[in-house]
Amino acid sequence: MGTIAIDPARDVLIIVDLQNDFCPGGALAVPDGHEIIPLINPLLRHRWFAVATKDWHPVDHCSFTHQGGPWPPHCVQQTSGAELHPALKTTSIQLVIAKGAQRDKEAYSGFQGTELAKILRQRGVKRVVLCGLATDYCVRATALDALREGFEVVVLEDAIRGVEVMPGDCQRALEELRQKGAQLAASADLTFDERP
C-alpha cells in the first residue's frame, strides 16, 4: 500500500459512532473500541473537514430488544452513552451527524435519513476517509452508502473495530467493501501537505 495524499479541498474524514455506549463500559461495547482513538486524534490535527456520526435514538427505538429489535438500548438521546468519547479531540470536528433519531427507522449508515451527502457535495468533497465503530455494522453501511452516492472511499483498517456477532463478520465486511470499490488503508498511509 502506497501513501494517500490528502487534499483538504476534496477529502473528508468521517468518524463513525465513536460514542461512549460503543466503547468499553458502554451499553453495547465494541471490544477494544477505545483503542482507535490514539490513531484518530492525530488525523484531527490536520486542516481538513472532519465529520462525526452518532446514533441518537429515542428511548423506544425499534432496534432495542424491548421493541423487538436485536440490540440492548444504547445511545439514547440526551444520555452520556450517546455522547462522543471524551478522549476524542472533538474540538477539531466541524460537523456532527445524528442518525437513527426516529423511533421506527433503523439507520446504520451516516447517510441514511440525513443531509450528509448533500453537505459533502456542497463542499466539493470527492473522497471520504472512514474510521470508527463498528466495522461490520455502521462503518460498513456508511462506506457502502458513500460508494452509492458516488464518493471515493478509503477505510482505515487500523482505526476501526467490530462487533463480530458471528466470527469473521469484520473480515467479510472489509472484503465486501473492497469488492465494491473501497480502498483499504492504514492511518499511517495518509500524508498531508501543510503548506499555507
CATH topology: Rossmann fold
- Computed structural class: alpha/beta
| Beta-strand content estimate | 15-25%
User: Secondary-structure element sequence?
Assistant: EEHEEHEHEHEE
The Cα radius of gyration reads 16 Å
Count of strand segments: 8
Strand order of the largest sheet: 4-3-2-5-6-7
Q: Approximately how much helix is present in the residues?
A: 10-25%
CATH homologous superfamily? Isochorismatase-like
Count of DSSP H/I helices:
4
- Give the overall average pLDDT: 96
Please characterize this protein's 3D structure.
The chain has 4 helices and 8 strands; from the N terminus they run ββαββαβαβαββ. It has 196 residues and is of the alpha/beta class. Strands 4-3-2-5-6-7 form a 6-stranded parallel sheet. Helix 3 (135-148) links the parallel strand 5 and strand 6. The longest helix is centred in the C-terminal third of the chain and has 14 residues, at 135-148. The radius of gyration is 16 Å and the shape is globular. The two termini are 28 Å apart. The mean pLDDT is 96.
What descriptive keywords fit this protein?
196 residues; alpha/beta; Rossmann fold; 6-stranded parallel sheet; 4 helices; 8 strands; 22% strand
At a glance:
The chain has 196 residues and is of the alpha/beta class.
Write the layout of secondary structure elements.
Elements: E1 4-6, E2 11-16, H1 37-40, E3 49-55, E4 95-99, H2 116-122, E5 127-133, H3 135-148, E6 152-161, H4 169-180, E7 183-185, E8 190-192
Parallel strand pairs: 1-8, 2-3, 2-5, 3-4, 5-6, 6-7
Helix pairs in contact: 3-4
